[in-house]
Design brief:
The protein has helices at residues 15-28, 36-49, 60-70, 85-92, 138-148, 199-208, 230-241, 243-261, 290-293, 297-306, 335-343, 355-368; strands spanning 5-6, 53-57, 76-79, 97-100, 123-127, 151-155, 163-164, 167-168, 175-179, 192-196, 213-215, 218-219, 267-268, 277-278, 284-288, 309-310, 344-347. 36% of the residues lie in helices and 16% in strands. Bound molecules: ligand T4K.
């Protein structure tokens, strides 16, 4: 393959659609601070999510940091390390202590069977991750949270547009955060949003994201700047119009990958439940069992790279093994997360990835089986 194929490629609207909004922004000279385009985007986004309290922000990470701040979370927070750096950093940057819970083998989300043993009198919240858009066991997490009076903040960075039993995934927990980064299935270049059902909480996040300003002469909270600008919002309006067609295109690719790869010895795919969940099909993780497959994950990644296919180790290393945390010694046994992170390879998956390329990627993986070094 001559052209480089990356793990993802941003979906872009027809350029004319975007330019129309750029002209509007030019004419208004209103570039940021919750202007008209931002308001239009927020309205469309709330309608799409069927949620009342939604706040488009500069990025998903700040939405997560401010969600924790808005709920006055203290002490310990139970979370998983099988995620992007952002989840753990958001906790630590709020001066909170992450306590790491292991994940389920079947879908890599937090294992509800292992949450309660980690709860102490210092625990005040759970931050589960809908990793790869795999919905966490939201019902069980809700019950645990209620029993122990804990807040739940979902890192739903990967789960935009998903539904559980027909209901938006953001309906669960106290707050959910979506990421609209360029690499996500829906992008505003950089961006993200916070969603909650509680009006007061939303007001607090709104104030926090604009320096804690409450009125012209009144600053009530130690906030920061997490505002989404007009150009980001314009991209959001345009991309939202094409979200469903892009979802359908990704589903075709995802299904083809599953057809081709599910029978290969030593490769494991995640367990999807299409009767219950509406997915966004934004990630295609495979897990390589080197003993059975005949080659380890890193060797397979190199084999693909030789053909200009750049699969990624999302997520390796797990966050509790990061150098910046090595002297801290966080609590929690995360054996399965560690094993999964050593096996995972995220294959290219995006709306305009052509099906011939998918076939070629599968050919390489198929030919690799049984042929490599352990
Ligand atoms: N929680 C979770 C679970 C997350 O995964 C993330 C973000 C967050 C929280 C925080 O949300 P944000 O604050 O980001 O909204 C990427 C993204 O930067 C990051 O947003 C994302 N997770 C993470 C999983 O992936 P990298 O360092 O792997 O990205 P990068 O630049 O290597 O891009 C991957 C590939 O995508 C490139 O090889 C080529 C392609 N690409 C990328 C960009 C930026 C393009 O084709 N065009 C582009 O503009 O982190």
């Amino acid at each position: 393959m001559e052209e480089n194929i990356y793990v993802t490629r941003p979906s872009l609207p027809p350029v004319e659609e975007y330019i129309e909004y750029v002209r509007q922004i030019w004419d208004s000279h209103n570039l940021t601070n919750m202007g008209m385009v931002w308001q239009e985007f927020n309205k469309g986004l709330s309608a799409f999510l069927q949620e009342q309290h939604v706040l488009p922000m500069s990025n998903g990470h700040m939405a997560l940091e401010m969600a924790l701040q808005a709920l006055d979370i203290t002490g310990e927070v139970i979370t998983t390390p099988f995620t992007f750096a952002s989840t753990t950093h958001a906790i630590v940057r709020n001066n909170l202590t992450p306590v790491f819970c292991d994940i389920k083998e079947s879908d890599c989300t937090i294992d509800p069977d292992k949450i309660e043993e980690l709860i102490t009198d210092k625990t005040s919240a759970i931050v589960p991750v809908h990793v790869y858009g795999m919905p966490c066991d939201v019902e069980r997490i809700e019950k645990i949270a209620q029993r122990h009076n804990l807040k739940v903040i979902y890192d739903a960075a990967h789960a935009f547009g998903e539904r559980i039993n027909g209901v938006s995934i953001s309906r669960y927990g106290d707050i959910s955060m979506f990421s609209f980064h360029a690499t996500k299935c829906f992008n505003t270049i950089e961006g993200g949003c916070a969603v909650t059902r509680d009006k007061e909480t939303m007001l607090k996040i709104y104030q926090l994201h604009n320096f804690g300003i409450v009125g012209r002469e009144s600053v009530e909270l130690v906030g920061a700047n997490a505002k989404m600008n007009e150009f980001q919002a314009a991209m959001g309006i345009c991309n939202l119009k094409h979200f469903e067609e892009n979802r359908n295109a990704r589903k075709v690719i995802f299904n083809r990958y599953r057809e081709r790869l599910s029978g290969i010895n030593g490769l494991r795919l995640l367990d999807y439940d299409e009767d219950k969940n509406t997915y966004n099909y934004s990630y295609m993780p495979i897990f390589v069992d080197s003993a059975e497959y005949g080659m380890n994950r890193d060797a397979l990644r190199e084999l693909l790279a030789k053909k200009h296919i750049y699969a990624r180790k999302y997520f390796y290393p797990i966050t509790n093994k990061f150098n910046c945390y090595k002297n801290i010694g966080f609590r929690g046994n995360t054996e399965i997360a560690e094993q999964k992170s050593k096996q995972v390879l995220a294959l290219p998956l995006y709306a305009d990835l052509n099906i011939e390329t998918v076939e070629e990627i599968c050919n390489v993986i198929e030919e690799g089986a049984g042929n490599g070094v352990r």
